Amino acid sequence: MLVLIGVCTLIALPLFIDSRLLALATVLVVIGGAQFMIAIGLRRHRPAQPLPWYLISVSALLSAVGTTLREFTANAASPFDDIFTLAGYFGIGVAATLWLRPRQVRGNYDLLLDSTLIGLGALLASWTFLISPILQAGAATMNTVAAATYPVLDALLLTLVAHSVATSTRSETSLRLLHLALFAVLVGDLGYSLDTVGTATIGHEVLVTPLLVGYATVGFAALHPTMTSIGGPRRIHPHHSRQRASFIAVTLIVASLVPVVGSSLGTVDRIVVSSLFALLLIGVLVRSERAIQRSQRSERRAQYQADHDMLTGLLNRSALLRALNRNSEHWAGQPLCLLFIDLDGFKGVNDSYGHAVGDELIANAASRIRRVVRRDDVVARYGGDEFVVLAPLGRQEASMLAERLLGAFVRPFELSAGEVPITTSVGIACTGPRTCDASIYDLIREADSAMYHAKEYSLGYAFHDDMRQGTTPPSTWKTPPHTRRGTPAPAPAPATAETGRRSWRPAGQTTSTAV
């Protein structure tokens, strides 16, 4: 804290004391202190990728030399001050590229597009308010080219800084300090450009102050422990999308002022401004289109998650209840059958092997069911170890489908805990051709009752219509697979009157829990 207060005091002294010697001493002390702090930071923290810090150190030194030559020497040194300053710009650009390269997100170009739009907006404003007036001033050729180069480099540097800000995190204090330093340098360069154009008359002590703040901030950034993350690989998640959109909005506002300000521009200026304006608008249109596509993907993902069970990928209960009304043309005028499937003994698997193995069994069971049914049939996980198949089938076709479903569970499941045999019971409710107004709740209730009846009497599968008529035709009530393998079936229990869902559960039989 004392060092920070001392540096701030030292930088502020030339603003209140008019002395060129003091100003020169301040520049030398600040740049020397920055180099010393960078050396201490590299020695103390030993980053895995020190090259960006070496480049930043050399770039700060070159820029400081250029500033010193510009402010404290005669005009004879004017070509050299620009050479040193431009070399410093080049070093900063290379350093920024090195620390940004490991932070690229493969396949995500939105961040790069936003940074480019911000840079184009800055370049458009620079050309209108800075570059064009400098070129029209009629100064010496070398000085004019050098003065016009700085705004272009500032726009490129702003693009890199915007990209780096969007990929940084709150914990990267050192990188945030570097961003502050670069912004200070940009503010100082803007002041120099405005002074060169004649738009504003700014004292040399004021112009140097932002640059000194930038040099000192670089030194403090090197002392922070997070300086080791710069230049190293890091998993990043692009953020600050709203902030980037705000910057782009400001860019568009500035662009809208160009036709007013540019009414006196020459032919070359108009061509450049029109080209930059066109690129900016194209970029905004591309960004808008990508934002729309991203929003649509998010909506589809949210809709999928709302309609599907995440464990099995099947439809969930709420989507099943909407199935008839969602595609009413597909169901209208056709016979309809609903098969309610329940895994026998699933609670024992859950209790013996744990819920992780139970989840694995549920996922594998759903996969087997999906392979048996047709592509257009609706398959849903109703809850826990219960599944539902809704298909436009007649009674005979539904019977054949139920037999195939039972056969799919004859082979034991190969799970992480080993081979786990499991059987299933199927209840079937059928109806003739009906309108889309038919309630699916009735089919579920009837098929559920038939499933418990089949489970109670070890029938494999049963039709609700046969239960209602009080008949037990042997051609439809099959022997379950576990009985065929020699495992004794559970003893039948007297059934209670049908009062709705769960009413056919035998006394003392427990319900499988949802996974």
In short:
The protein contains 19 helices and seven strands. It has 515 residues and is an alpha+beta fold.
Molecular structure report:
The protein is of the alpha+beta class. The protein is 63% helix and 8% strand. Strands 2-3-1-6-7 form a five-stranded mixed sheet. A two-stranded antiparallel sheet has the order 4-5. Helix 9 (241-261) runs antiparallel to helix 10. Mean pLDDT is 79; it is low at 473-515.
Give the secondary structure arrangement, pairings included:
Layout lengths: L1 H15 L3 H26 L5 H22 L5 H23 L9 H27 L4 H27 L5 H25 L6 H20 L17 H21 L5 H41 L9 H5 L1 H4 L1 H4 L4 E9 L1 H8 L1 H18 L5 E6 L2 E6 L3 H14 L4 E3 L2 E3 L2 E9 L8 H17 L4 E3 H6 L11 H4 L31
Parallel strand pairs: 6-7
Antiparallel strand pairs: 1-3, 1-6, 2-3, 4-5
Helix pairs in contact: 1-2, 1-8, 2-3, 2-8, 3-4, 3-8, 4-6, 5-6, 5-9, 5-10, 6-7, 7-8, 9-10, 14-15
Count of individual helical segments: 19
Please give the alpha-carbon distance between the first and last residues: 57 Å
Q: What structural class do the secondary elements suggest?
A: alpha+beta
Element-level helix/strand string: HHHHHHHHHHHHHEHHEEHEEEHEHH
Percentage of residues assigned to helices: 55-70%
Largest sheet: 5 strands, mixed
Shape: elongated
DSSP strand (E) fraction?
5-15%
Task: Report Rg.
Answer: 38 Å
Give the low-confidence spans: 473-515
Number of strands: 7
Q: In order across it, which strands form the biggest sheet?
A: 2-3-1-6-7
Rounded mean pLDDT score: 79
